[in-house]
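To whoever is on call:

I kicked off a structure prediction for a single chain this morning and the downstream step that reads the tokens threw a length-mismatch warning. I double-checked the sequence; it's 106 residues and nothing unusual in it as far as I can see. Pasting both halves so you can look.
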Amino acid sequence: MQNKFAKETRYKTRGIETEMPMPLQAFLWQCIDDWQAEGVKLDRLQVFKFERIADGLYAIRHEQEQPNKATVYYLPDDLGIASVVGKKVFVIDDGDYSTMLFADEY
């Protein structure tokens, strides 16, 4: 089964809806789309981790296990990253739809 992460079948949990700013949600989906556009074979589980690097500078680590791949993005807090520092977000594709959720909602 090909993991599609199709734009038409993307969902988010209530936690994501209420705790994560919309621009940051859009950025995470775009990270997945970018990997797909690069021809990366996507694992059904995409993981995002958020860290504060310095005043006004944050890191978002996007990773997957199979095949093993990781990318780190260094960004200012324009997307509202500060609100999710220390949290982990999963994006899971089951073949029919994709869901974005905080790891503690799993």
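Update from on-call: the warning came from a stale cache, not from the record. Cleared it. Sanity check on the structure: The CA atoms of residues 57 and 76 lie 5 Å apart.
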